[in-house]
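In this supplementary section we document a worked example of the pipeline. Step one takes a protein sequence of length 83 as its only input; no multiple sequence alignment statistics are reported here. Step two produces a three-dimensional model, which step three serialises into structure tokens for compact storage. The input and output of this example are shown verbatim.
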Amino acid sequence: MTISLKMLGSIAAQTGVAELAMEVDGNFRRGMAEVKARVDALTEGKIPYQMAYNGAFLARVDVEAHRIQDGDQFLVLPVVLGG
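The serialised model returned by step three reads:
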């Protein structure tokens, strides 16, 4: 499946990548692992982030019942820290 991977905010600025297309497995767990591996490689594992899938935070996605489809979108969101 071809998905869109979008980096937002400081992650896009620090990696130099705002958006890319990526081929992933249609199985949600395997596809998500491929996306996370790509993001970790781009951020060199040094930038904390959260991910959303088609507008929903990953914690709210039923990974057992879901399949990745062509055109789906993963958003990489910077973790905002401060006080």
